[in-house]
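Saturday, quiet lab. Running sequence design on the C-alpha cells for the scaffold JK sent over.
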C-alpha cells in the first residue's frame, strides 16, 4: 500500500524529533555519569584534607611514620573516621565507640585504602601500592613548617557504591521517562503539523482533479505568501484562463456554426425551390447561388487564415519594403469599392520612403481588410481617412472613418473572433467578424501593435504602430 504524503511528512517529523530526543537523552545520561563521578572525586578530595590533618597529628605523636608500618589497621581507623559524618571540629576529641562496619562499609573502606598513597619526606612510599603517576594531586603533609611527607588519592574511574549507582539509575530512569513523554508529544505534534501542511496540497490535488474533469470554475484558497500560496494563486489564474478559453471556444463554435448555417440554409432553400419549380432557373437564381457560395468560401478562407496564424503556420516572407508604396497601392485598389459605397477617401502619406522589414502580401492583406471594413460599415456619403507618420523610429498608421461608431468600451472587443457590433455590423453587410482578428495576428507577427478607438470623424479609428527597419533608421 502506497503511503500518502501526510504519512511521509508525519514519519519524517517523528523520526527527526525522535533522533533529537534520543540523542539528547544519551548525552544527558553520559553527562550524569561523568558529572556525578567528578562530584564524588571532589568530595573524596575534600575528605582527604581531614585524613591529612589526622595523619599529621598521628605523625607528631610518634615523630615518625612507623605507626603505619607496624600497625596497618591504624590507617583503616583513620580512613573510617574521615569518611564518617563527624564534623571536622570534633576530630581532636576522643571518638565515641562505633559499631563494627557493615560488609558494604568494609568494602567501601577497602576500595578507598587501595587508592591511598602516603610518602615520607624522601618520596619513599610509607603506605599503599598506588603509583604516583596515577595521582592527580599529592597533598603535602607538614608539621611545624616542615614537610614530613605527601598524601595522594587515586581518582575513581567508575562508580562502585550501591547508593551512588542507585542515584545514577534513578536519574537515568527520569531522563528516559522524559524522553518517552517528549516522543509522545512529538508524535501528537507531528500528526497535527503533517495534516496542516498537507491540507493545501490536498485541496490543490482535489482542485486539479476537478479541473482535469472539466470543472473550470474550481478555485483554491490562496491566503499565504509562501510557495504554496503562490502555487495556489497560479492555479487560480490557470483555472480562470482555461475557463475563459473554454467560454471562447464554445462561443466560437456556436458563432461559426451559425455563420456556416446561414449561407448553407439559403443555398439549400434556393436549390429546393429550383428543384420544385417554384423558382425558375435563370441568371438571377444562378447569381444568388453564386453570391452565397462566394460568401461561404470567403468565410471558410478567413477561418483557414486565422487557424494558420494561431498555430504559427501562416508563412511570412519578410524583406525590406517601402510602407508608403504599400499603402498607396492599397488606397488605389480600394478606391473603386469605396466609391461604390458613396464614401470619400483621403490619404495623407509622406513623399519620402519609410522602410519596414515585413511581408508585402500580408501587409497588403492587412490594409485591404481595414479599408474593406470601412467600406462595409460606414454610412453612405461618409469619409475614410488614411495617414502614415514616423515618430521616434516607429511607423504610425491610422485608418479612421465616419459614423456609425462603436459603443464606448467595445473598441478592443472588435479584435475578438466573430465579434460584431450588431447596430452597425450586421450580417447583411457580409462580415463574419474575423477580419480584425486576422489583422491583429498580422500586426503582431511584424512585432507591432494595433488598437481601436473612437474616430474624430464620428466612426472608428484603427491605430497601428510598426517598427521601422533598423538599417535605415
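Result came back. Writing it out in full:
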Amino acid at each position: 500500500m502506497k503511503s500518502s504524503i501526510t504519512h511521509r511528512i508525519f514519519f519524517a517529523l517523528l523520526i527527526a524529533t525522535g533522533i533529537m530526543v534520543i540523542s539528547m537523552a544519551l548525552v544527558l545520561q553520559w553527562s550524569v555519569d561523568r558529572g556525578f563521578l567528578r562530584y564524588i572525586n571532589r568530595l573524596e578530595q575534600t575528605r582527604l584534607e581531614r585524613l591529612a590533618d589526622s595523619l599529621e597529628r598521628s605523625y607528631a605523636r610518634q615523630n615518625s611514620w612507623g605507626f603505619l608500618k607496624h600497625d596497618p589497621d591504624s590507617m583503616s581507623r583513620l580512613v573510617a573516621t574521615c569518611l564518617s559524618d563527624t564534623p571536622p571540629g570534633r576530630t581532636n576529641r576522643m571518638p565515641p565507640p562505633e559499631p563494627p562496619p557493615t560488609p558494604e562499609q568494609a568494602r567501601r573502606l577497602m576500595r578507598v585504602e587501595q587508592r591511598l598513597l602516603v610518602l615520607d619526606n624522601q618520596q619513599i612510599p610509607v603506605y599503599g601500592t598506588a603509583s604516583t603517576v596515577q595521582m592527580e594531586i599529592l597533598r603535602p603533609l607538614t608539621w611545624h613548617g616542615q614537610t614530613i611527607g605527601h598524601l595522594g588519592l587515586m581518582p575513581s574511574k567508575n562508580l562502585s557504591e550501591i547508593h551512588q549507582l542507585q542515584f545514577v539509575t534513578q536519574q537515568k530512569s527520569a531522563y528516559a521517562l522524559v524522553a518517552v513523554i517528549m516522543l509522545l508529544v512529538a508524535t501528537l505534534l507531528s500528526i497535527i503539523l503533517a495534516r496542516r501542511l498537507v491540507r493545501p496540497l490536498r485541496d490543490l490535488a482535489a482542485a486539479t482533479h476537478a479541473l482535469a474533469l472539466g470543472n473550470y470554475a474550481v478555485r483554491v484558497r490562496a491566503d499565504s505568501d509562501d510557495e504554496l500560496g503562490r502555487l495556489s494563486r497560479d492555479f487560480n489564474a490557470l483555472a480562470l484562463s482555461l475557463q475563459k478559453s473554454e467560454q471562447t471556444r464554445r462561443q466560437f463554435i456556436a458563432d461559426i456554426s451559425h455563420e456556416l448555417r446561414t449561407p448553407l440554409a439559403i443555398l439549400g432553400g434556393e436549390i429546393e425551390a429550383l428543384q420544385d419549380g417554384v423558382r425558375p432557373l435563370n441568371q438571377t437564381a444562378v447569381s444568388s447561388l453564386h453570391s452565397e457560395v462566394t460568401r461561404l468560401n470567403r468565410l471558410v478562407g478567413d477561418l483557414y487564415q486565422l487557424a494558420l496564424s494561431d498555430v504559427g503556420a501562416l508563412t511570412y516572407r519578410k524583406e525590406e519594403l517601402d510602407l508608403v508604396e504599400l499603402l498607396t497601392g492599397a488606397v488605389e485598389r480600394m478606391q473603386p469599392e469605396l466609391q461604390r459605397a458613396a464614401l470619400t477617401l483621403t490619404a495623407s502619406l509622406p513623399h519620402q520612403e519609410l522602410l519596414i522589414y515585413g511581408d508585402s502580401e500580408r501587409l497588403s492583406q492587412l490594409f485591404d481588410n481595414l479599408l474593406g471594413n470601412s467600406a462595409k460599415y460606414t454610412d453612405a456619403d461618409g469619409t475614410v481617412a488614411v495617414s502614415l507618420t514616423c515618430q521616434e523610429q516607429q511607423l504610425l498608421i491610422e485608418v479612421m472613418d465616419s459614423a456609425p461608431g462603436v459603443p464606448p468600451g467595445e473598441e478592443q472587443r472588435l479584435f475578438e473572433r466573430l465579434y460584431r457590433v450588431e447596430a452597425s455590423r450586421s450580417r447583411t453587410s457580409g462580415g463574419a467578424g474575423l477580419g480584425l482578428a486576422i489583422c491583429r495576428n498580422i500586426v503582431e507577427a511584424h512585432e507591432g501593435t494595433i488598437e481601436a478607438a473612437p474616430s474624430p470623424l464620428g466612426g472608428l479609428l484603427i491605430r497601428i504602430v510598426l517598427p521601422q527597419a533598423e538599417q535605415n533608421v
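Notes for JK: Confidence is low (pLDDT under 50) at residues 85-95, 423-430. DSSP finds ten helices and eleven strands in the chain. Ask whether to fix the surface positions before the next round.
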